[in-house]
Specification:
By secondary structure, this protein is an alpha+beta fold. About 60% of the residues lie in helices and about 20% in strands. The protein has helices at about 5-65, 65-95, 95-105, 135-145; strands at about 110-120, 125-135, 155, 165-175. The longest helix is centred in the first third of the chain and has 57 residues, at about 5-65. The mean pLDDT is about 85.
Length: about 180
């Protein structure tokens, strides 16, 4: 039946159909926005009430003795941390700290029989006596001591390298405090 209409009427009907389609689409969009807003309203009120409650709790904490206690506790923690840092510095300069750093990186081919530690006013001396399986093991022990930042000078007498196996050695390392 639509085909029987003249072209002018067909165009007018198409135009009217498009207008109705746009109006329906706009109405559906508006209805969707209104439904979404209706779902967001409770969330908004919940957010506002929790925010006001949180602000009230913050005001109580800011004005009460809890804030002073928290600040005092924070200061105590900072003091303890500073003391721990200072004790860590002195631990590295103690005989135990130096010995553990010295022997931590030795290979299994080196056995230490004697450890001597002497501390002066501004420097310390560590003397290791032991047996190395071969020259390479003794050289690697010496290089480990030289590579560390703890010791300024490391000496192994040349006579300790005289044998090929089972080398008795004396390693002397000095560092500044």
């Amino acid at each position: 039946m639509f085909n029987l209409l003249p072209d002018i009427d067909k165009r007018a009907l198409r135009k009217e159909y498009r207008k109705r389609l746009v109006v329906c689409a706009l109405f559906l969009s508006l209805a969707t926005i209104l439904v979404a807003a209706a779902f967001e309203i409770p969330r908004y009120y919940l957010y506002r009430t929790t925010m006001t409650d949180a602000k009230a709790r913050m005001a109580v904490v800011d004005s009460g003795p809890l804030l002073e206690a928290a600040i005092a506790f924070d200061k105590e923690i900072m003091e303890v941390n500073n003391l721990m840092k200072i004790s860590d510095l002195y631990k590295n300069l103690s005989a135990y700290g130096i010995m553990s750093q010295a022997l931590e990186k030795k290979s299994s081919n080196v056995s230490v029989q004697d450890f001597s530690y002497t501390r002066g006013a501004d420097q310390f001396t560590v003397v290791l006596r032991g047996v190395a399986l071969d020259r390479a093991s003794l050289q690697s022990l010496k290089s480990v001591f030289e590579q560390g930042s703890l010791f300024d000078s490391v000496e192994v007498p040349l006579s300790d390298f005289a044998r090929n196996k089972d080398l008795n050695f004396t390693l002397t390392a000095q560092g500044k405090i």
